[in-house]
User: What shape does this take?
Amino acid sequence: MAKSVKKKGSTKVSKVLTSPFSIYWSRINYLILALGIILSVLGYYFLSIKPWNSTSALYLGPVILILVYLVFFPLSILFRKKESSPGQEPK
Assistant: This one.
């Protein structure tokens, strides 16, 4: 006679995964973005100053815009506060 084999119930451990597309921006991200927008408006203002060969139109405006587009906008997107692990003491 054949033995009956009982199937064990599989226990599923379901982890709650957060979406990678969730909004993770904090207040500091919005402040950096606002500062970048203000500086970009200021840079374009310096570019529009007459005459076209003034110091602010040739040097100051482009330097501000390069700084905004290469530093402030990417920083506002990529910046995250470091979360302290439970074993570490806050300083």
Notes: Helices lie at 27-48, 55-78. The chain has a mean pLDDT of 85. The longest helix spans residues 55-78. Residues 25-76 form one domain.
